[in-house]
Amino acid sequence: MDSRPSYDEKLLGILRASAGIFAEKGYHRASIRDISAATGISLSGLYYYFRSKEELLFLIQDHCFGTLLQRLEEGLPGGDDPAAHLHLFIRNHLRFFLANREEMKVLSHESEVLTGEYRAGVAAKKRRYTERASDILAELLPRGGVELRTATFSLFGMMNWIYTWYRPDRDGNADELAESMTHIFLRGCLTPMGAKRDAAPDGGLEGAPSIWRTG
Amino acid sequence: MDSRPSYDEKLLGILRASAGIFAEKGYHRASIRDISAATGISLSGLYYYFRSKEELLFLIQDHCFGTLLQRLEEGLPGGDDPAAHLHLFIRNHLRFFLANREEMKVLSHESEVLTGEYRAGVAAKKRRYTERASDILAELLPRGGVELRTATFSLFGMMNWIYTWYRPDRDGNADELAESMTHIFLRGCLTPMGAKRDAAPDGGLEGAPSIWRTG
Amino acid sequence: MDSRPSYDEKLLGILRASAGIFAEKGYHRASIRDISAATGISLSGLYYYFRSKEELLFLIQDHCFGTLLQRLEEGLPGGDDPAAHLHLFIRNHLRFFLANREEMKVLSHESEVLTGEYRAGVAAKKRRYTERASDILAELLPRGGVELRTATFSLFGMMNWIYTWYRPDRDGNADELAESMTHIFLRGCLTPMGAKRDAAPDGGLEGAPSIWRTG
Amino acid sequence: MDSRPSYDEKLLGILRASAGIFAEKGYHRASIRDISAATGISLSGLYYYFRSKEELLFLIQDHCFGTLLQRLEEGLPGGDDPAAHLHLFIRNHLRFFLANREEMKVLSHESEVLTGEYRAGVAAKKRRYTERASDILAELLPRGGVELRTATFSLFGMMNWIYTWYRPDRDGNADELAESMTHIFLRGCLTPMGAKRDAAPDGGLEGAPSIWRTG
DNA sequence: AATGAATGAGGGTTCATTCAT
DNA sequence: CATGAATGAACCCTCATTCAT
What we know:
The structure is a homotetramer.
Chain A: H1 7-25, H2 32-39, H3 43-46, H4 53-75, H5 82-99, H6 101-109, H7 116-140, H8 148-160, H9 174-187
Helix pairs in contact in A: 1-2, 1-4, 1-6, 4-5, 4-6, 4-7, 5-6, 5-7, 5-9, 7-8
The first copy, chain A, binds a DNA duplex through helix 3.
């Protein structure tokens, strides 16, 4: 039994600590020295784990998006109720968001920092992820409704903005928030939440709040 | 007749140029030297107009919120249709946002940079502004609906996130976007936009798109 | 009757205020802006009264030494008791010093700042002044006693160091200090102050403490 | 065998070089660039050895006072002749002063620059040092003599002023100066130096000039 | 696998000074 | 007489990064 942390474990610890610092001070104001202090690893020792500060940000964002995508794929089994799909998407997003608020803040807030290959790499994952949402919405939006692009990004705006205002003691947990936002997005604020909706078959919504399951 | 710009005009020019640079590179990566180059004013000469880089950011944000609030007050005449009020609020926000995208990006993206008095000053205006929205929503939300806080910030998230994705050539103008977002927020994406809504007396909505006027 | 201050009066006010600031912060740390604030005269307005910061320091030091020398000449009438002369010299120095502590601190502390003509000008007056003391001491020192240079500068050291420690509430006034220092310098600390000294005719010592007048 | 200088040796070298520059130009006019040039260490490299210019000054002053105090304690063995003690004190002070003129000038001239903790740290040592002199003087001064405070600071004035006038080629070495100043301070200038004094048992004055040893 | 020591580039800011008005 | 506006030079300091060990 070897209790020494492996390379990967150490790297993950560095990513987590760095995300915390980037979230707190912002990427540019955070210094590698801050990260050295937070991790207990010497300034130059850190460069064993990443090539540059920019790569460090990339690793954080890439790992974050990777996990987000993976969770999404695991949690989104087939099914033919796009509304339920959307709810699952939102719930997945918010669960991960609130469980990894620092990483997600870095993802949301520092999205324009990366350049070159790093930028391209993250952008690709982001595009894939966004397309998932877009695809779901494409099935949902009625003719003559809101533009798909507008709808998609409005949804992401609602969700990603969370890092600016969310307080765990006041604003409910991820699932509650997911329900609210799904409701707002699909039915609007004017519709009472308990309201009976058009019958829709449950699309792989096991575990989802009962409201989404037509009785 | 003196055509030389006054102190105030020069200051406003500096604020505008600085907002552009802050929007492009982010506050921390932008240097006063960048601003000097963009304005044609010498590095030290700039300090005649502001005391510090932080004050410069404050001036931008404060002036921006000030104008936003002022426009809101001018454009929000009495009336008793809260839905119309909300539409006006959103339209005012987006009109200003898209007409001053750089400033608004700075407002949205660099909201945590300021400290001390500067931070407090902007926060006060922001709170006042947010409360306007919140007050309108309080009249709109049905019992058992979405939490007021959640609704309010979801709305702002939808609107403020725009700076990350809006492209004038693809995404319609401010008024169109305002209409879409009002629709999403109040009725939800599932509702077709042309749909007849509950009759509601026009609440000071002169100039608003016809859809909001009940036939 | 014109109550507006004349050029000279304004200049003197500036010199006084500047001496205060130089004394407090030191010449190099003090800025012309500080002086502008202290005098109420605009930054550029000050340059009507002096050509440069260095000239300002010169004016202060020159005026200060000038007054010191003038007072000395007025207060040092003939007489043939060199000890009494010395006492008068010391008293004159300390009276002026304590009545103009800020100026004297600037004189003592910033003596190496000036360059070129300015430096030469002040140095000349300082030399003349120092020679007065030296001349008096030359008559006093016994054969085989302390070196004249050493004695002279030890005396000035004792006196000029005052600016580092003097507190009006604890350390007596100028005349008391002058008596003490004269005593230390001539008779030493081991000699009680009241002790009868060798008879010496009063050398123009009107107003001096009785101890110096042989009964 | 490693002949490369250790961290401490390098730091001491930097302190010495910096003291030289501070002595020459004054703390505020001296720039870190000057020190970089004098030491051959790059501008930023210097900050590996101190946190700020102010800390650099502190290190110089603290180290200087530390050595001064240590030498004093080593050189001041017991004994009951306070006059001999005083002579030793003065000799210790002047030996160190003249052997480290640049540091001592910095100590004397830049004593008001430090702030906060740095200031407090040096002030504590200075107080301890001054009290040594004061304690000795307290035993020496006769009733009705000069005030203790006045005597103490007059002595320090005499000694510390040296940096303004001392020239090795004209003014004797440290021990000669110490003898002169002790003489002036205790017996006064009027007393010839060779004069027989009250018999006093030698108080640990090995190595002191013969004059202090009663025949 | 890790670090102490060092550096070039660049950052925000201050300052004495000028000059048209 | 006096000032508002402006500037070039310089200053202290921080940073990401490197390299010998």
